[in-house]
Structures are given as C-alpha cells and as structure tokens.
Amino acid sequence: MLSSFFELRLGDCLAGMQALAPESVDVVVTSPPYNLGIRYARFDDTASREDYLAWSLRWAAEIRRVLKPHGSFFLNVGAAPANPLLPHQLALRFSELFVLQNTFHWIKSITVETKGGEPISAGHFKPLNSPRYVTDCHEYVFHFTQTGDVPLDRLAIGVPYADKSNIARWGHTGGRDRRCRGNAWFVPYQTIKSREKDRPHPATFPVELASLCLRLHGVGEGSFVMDPFNGIGHAALAAAECGVGRFLGFDIDAGYLREAQTRLAAKGIEAACPTPLPAVEGTAVRASQRGRPRKQAGAGAKKAAPPAEPPGP
Description:
Order of helices and strands: EHEEHEHEEEEHEHHEHEHHE
Helix content: 10-25%
Distance between the termini: 25 Å
Strand order of the largest sheet: 1-11-10-2-4-8-5-9
C-alpha cells in the first residue's frame, strides 16, 4: 500500500466540519442531494424548497469557514425538466457566502454535425418520454471562491488547438499547442454491465469530473481536499489520481464508505476510518440512498425538515 492521509468519516458532515480548523482546506469537490423527490430505499429526497435551501446554507457556511482564502469550492448540482430552478436558487443562496467565480456545464451526452452534415452522438443519457420537455443531458458545476480572483491552472486541463495556425497567431500561446478548455466539459459516464456492482449509487459524478476540478485549481502533495458528501468515493479517487496529500470525506452511509475504501484500496490507497463501519445488510445501493429518512406512506403525512446530512454521491 502507498502511504496516504486519506480519511473517511462515518457521520454528519456538519458536525464533522465543525471539528476542523478554520482555513485548513484547499479544495472542496462535492455533489449534495438535489432534492428532486427521487424514491430511495431508506431516505426521502422531498424536503420543501425553503427547508432544503436553508439546510444547504448551513453546511455551505461550514465549508466557507474551513476553506482557505484562496481555496476553491466546486459544487455539482443538477435539475429536472419539471424543476429547473433548483441549481440557480442554490447558487443564489450560496452567493451570501461566496463569490461565483466560474460556472461549468457538465455535458453527459451531445450530438454534433460534421462539416459534411453527418450527425455524431457521444455519451450517455436517460431518455425522457414527454410532450413538454426535452431530454436533460447536462448538469452544473459551480465554482465558488471567497474573493472571486483565485488563480487557476487553466492549461492543466487544456486541449490542443484544432487549427494549428492559432499557435503562432496568438502571442499568449508561447508556441504551445494548448488552449483553455472553456466551461463546457464533455464527461460521459463509463459504460457499465451491472449498476449494482459497477456503480452502487443512484447519483454519482464521474471521477474525471472531479479530476478536472482539482487539476484546474492546482493540487499536489501539500493539498487538503474534502468532500462532505463522499458517497462511494469518486472525489477521493480523483484526489488520489491527482497526487493529493490529504483527503477527507464524510458520509452517513456505512455501505458507501465501505465501497469507497474498497475502490481506493484497488488504487493502492489505504483510507482510514476512525469509526468502525458497522455491518450492513445487502448492497450499499439497496441499504441506503442519499436523501432524508423516508416516512411510512399515509394520508396527510407531513414532510420532516432535512437532517444534518444525507449520504453523498
């Protein structure tokens, strides 16, 4: 095993972050529950909008407290065609704490036409059969900072010029065949054979998406990266790939953390877990999903306010 400072903590991210020193984290990459009413095994993702936003502001305030002055907070959040305002409402609420420095569009599937007019499709999407809405093929990644002027390593995730004459035409290239990738990131999901085995979580982001965020900010052995909604550890895997020296992930689901440990171990990273992970029945995806504990169905059942933390991606 490679020596590492990767740690996975079972518990509420609000309480966990409160135990961290102020201005200690370099980068946060996370994706919280989207509050879109997805039916999960043990959790309810249907808080009222105001309850959800108020709860989100509480954990975002802790991120603000622990983030270094020149740190970056990358927030992945999606929407549903019938509920399109959520990402924007969340970004507006978080503007009370941060400056929105960049907005990235995670493109999951796209169709482009060649110069000859041939359509070429790439990526994966969930088909939507609706007379009102088109299929949703993207999500947002909001890049928040404290000041709005945090330097980024744009060429660390740069791409080659399609027209090589631009290398000499633009003085800022320095003769290098590398340009800024821009804010539209095509990152398709990997093709899998078994959802339960290969992606035991209903709402993960690809490791590559988190890796783009980390490389854009610039990380290394001296960096401390955190994911408050760790899930099965895709941000942790990205941190390992990017050579991050310290990673901390929180989740309330022992099954997800156990899966994250297994995936990190396959990459030679031994992730510590201070609290022994209790045994859980069944697979992680069936034992718990992200959201709030579900109530028994009943007429007139009242929705409960969100708990401190649902499981992460």
